[in-house]
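Hello, quick one for you while I still have it in my head. Could you read through the record and tell me how the tokens relate to the sequence? No rush at all, and the record is pasted right below.
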Amino acid sequence: MWRLGASVTIAILAGAGAYLWRHRDPMSAWEAFNLIIPTAFLSTIYSWSYDQVLYIIPIVWIVLRLIDRTRSYLASFGFLSLLVLVSFLALVVQANTHSDLLSLMTTALVLAGCLGLRSPETGTGTASSRS
């Protein structure tokens, strides 16, 4: 079992490393940082849900990018609502089954938000993400 876990960890780190290496020039430091945090969580052996407190950094970045792109708070509200709903669902499942695997869905949402909101033209992000 530990071999499978080690193989998955190495694959996740290699995939993230390759992605960051290929996109190193157009990617800003904030964008790279926002991808490194969820990747680091996925590569841990124990994956405790309370380690996800570090997601506050990429979540704030995602919310700011959504507001900047849509000029409205509705998309940010929807993203945060979905994140809270998935987190509570994962908590209910963990309480009933003693399995914490569903909390990986929050990691998937954060990663999807970070990858989906990268700047397509230069990858430098907004002025608020650079400060």
Remarks:
- The chain is about 70% helix and 0% strand.
- The longest helix spans residues 74-97.
- The chain has a mean pLDDT of 81.
